Amino acid sequence: VIENPSNPKFKSCVIKYVNRSIDNDSKEMLSDDELRAHPYPNKEPFITEKGVRFIYQKYEIGAGALGVVDIIIPYSIIAEYMSEDALQLIGYK
Fold this sequence. Notes:
This protein is an alpha+beta fold and 93 residues long.
């Protein structure tokens, strides 16, 4: 789905979006160092009706109490990082 997951601009986009998606009470359970080191989740992101869905499993980017972090990044934000095949599949222009 993502053309180049190691692209620094893409990594920065994901990190910002994860941080915006987590409520203030949960931010202290999020490991910024871990997220910066591995912003791409272990489970491959996938296409949904509203955008690309990223699911971080428990303990993947923070304390277990943070639980599963499940976000959808809208196409308007993530399209520039998507592969041509994925863009064609969703009919994004």
